[in-house]
Design brief:
This protein is an all-alpha fold. The protein has 23 helices and no strands.
Length: about 500
């Protein structure tokens, strides 16, 4: 009962911004606003969004399959660890940083805006697909594969054992990347590739009142609910096997392990080298002093948001896995994921409406709303993070620890066994908060800056030396965070 008393008010507050937006849609929907969806302007931008989303989803699946096969064909544990760390870093880095580095290449600037957007977003999202596939394949019973290989060919084993368990994760990954690309706003906006999400963000920036653009949220909401509905059907059967598969089927690919890992490592180093090139022309000490307050401000806000996000997501996670109803579990998980599949600008729009309702535009309220917007985006990621850990852990023990209420047992058993997970979760959420751009642009108090928004603004002004310096600071923080995560998890999870 205590769980319900604590959690329900938090969930109500969590969905308040979306409620404000939907209320504005219901009140502001008119014949003239509906006519927008019949214009060539809408159809052209929707077409661009769909084409880009399909392209990124397909290319992400392609590179994710390569990295997944490399992971399971790696003969040594250290090679799997390096590949895992590289995937984490590629996923943690903001697309704006990739764009900053790649824009130094003359040939990249001669590509079409579609190809540029496709390249940047593929680098961003293929690690996510890789993680989904790796977690799915790890759960396939290894003994069944060994026995099957004794009596039939690897081709038949792959066809009749692997594919039936792999097609659902593939569809899931495809749909998630499709929606994350569809709602992505920053890269197409900077490159001038006209998408529906980019149009939505640009209209928010110049709007006079929320009612005049609230109708534009309809495609995002409908598409996200559609994808969540499909995911519900796909994921209704929970994986229960705890045996980690070494995946004998991929042993024939061992000769490709090192070339793939070297290629990914070279790509990461190459991106850094493009940024370092500018540093020889500037005074690094002066730049650091000039930007110290921005760096400090960004880190404090992001770390505080990470702590809050960890606390709230652990509360939700504990409630989910202590509840006996399958429908409440899956329903709550999917509804929490809703904000992950909606544009950050949409939830920010609801928070802008909330500030108008409160009639308070002070700096403190601005920062509270900004942190609120960050939480809406990172809590779904935290839940996915915790669920993936549950898949890698003994479920009975994990649930047992989550349901302990005795203070002494919590202090002497739960904290020593779970602190690495909690601290890792805080680091992950801090990194994602550092990268959040759209919410920051719309909600940060006037005159204030964070690291990612300063990078974005300086890119528009053409100050590439400062952009490179700040981007390297961001990438250094991500590198240190990733190494720390690897250190914390190395002894706890073989495949973490």
């Amino acid at each position: 009962m205590k769980n319900y008393i604590i959690l329900f008010p938090l969930i109500f507050i969590f969905f308040l911004p979306l409620t404000f937006v939907l209320f504005q849609v219901a009140n502001g929907l008119t014949q003239s606003s509906l006519e927008y969806f019949t214009t060539s302007q809408f159809s052209h931008k929707l077409f661009n969004s769909i084409v880009l989303s399909l392209g990124v989803s397909i290319s992400s699946l392609f590179f994710a399959l390569i990295s997944t096969i490399t992971f399971f064909s790696s003969p040594q544990r250290w090679t799997r660890e390096i590949l895992s760390l590289l995937l984490f870093m590629f996923f943690f880095i903001s697309p704006i940083i990739y764009l900053t580095a790649l824009s130094k290449l003359t040939w990249f600037n001669h590509l079409s805006t579609y190809t540029q957007s496709l390249s940047v977003l593929t680098i961003k999202f293929f690690p996510l697909v890789s993680m989904i596939l790796i977690l799915s394949l790890v759960k396939i019973e290894s003994n069944s594969i060994r026995v099957a290989l004794m009596i039939t060919s690897s081709k038949n084993v792959f066809k009749y054992i692997v594919i039936p368990q792999l097609y659902k994760p593939l569809i899931t990954a495809f749909l998630i990347v499709f929606m994350l690309t569809f709602i992505h706003q920053e890269v197409p906006s900077f490159l001038g590739y006209r998408t529906y999400a980019e149009e939505f963000l640009s209209r928010i920036v110049v709007m006079d009142n929320i009612g005049e653009i609230s109708f534009m949220t309809i495609p995002f909401v409908l598409l996200s609910f559609l994808i969540l509905g499909i995911l519900t059907q796909i994921l209704n059967k929970q994986l229960t096997s705890n045996s980690k598969s070494s995946f004998l089927l991929f042993q024939n690919f061992q000769k490709y392990t090192f070339p793939v890992i070297i290629t990914f490592s070279a790509l990461f180093l190459f991106l850094n080298a493009l940024l370092v090139e500018e540093l020889f022309q500037i005074n690094i000490k002066t730049l650091f002093i000039d930007n110290f307050s921005v760096l400090k401000n960004s880190f404090i806000i992001s770390f505080f948001t990470g702590l809050l996000g960890s606390f709230f997501s652990l509360l939700v996670y504990r409630f989910i896995y202590s509840n006996n109803s399958k429908y409440i579990k899956s329903g709550l998980i999917l509804f929490m994921l809703l904000y992950w599949l909606l544009p950050s600008s949409l939830s920010s729009l609801g928070l802008i409406e909330l500030s108008i309702y409160l009639n308070d535009y002070s700096k403190s309220i601005g920062y509270i709303l900004l942190i609120f917007a960050y939480l809406l985006k990172i809590v779904p990621i935290a839940l996915l993070f915790l669920i993936s850990f549950e898949l890698m852990h003994s479920p009975d023990m994990f649930l047992k620890l989550q349901n302990i209420n005795t203070v002494n047992i919590f202090k002497h058993i739960t904290v020593p066994t779970s602190w690495t997970t909690w601290f890792t979760l805080t680091i992950v959420l801090t990194v994602f908060s550092l990268n959040e751009l759209s919410s920051t642009v719309l909600l940060i108090p006037p005159g204030e800056e964070t690291l990612i928004i300063k990078i974005y603004n300086l890119m528009h002004y053409g100050d590439f030396a400062s952009v490179s310096f700040l981007s390297l600071i961001q990438m250094s923080l991500i590198l240190l965070s990733t190494l720390l995560i690897g250190f914390l998890l190395r002894s706890k999870y073989d495949y973490a």
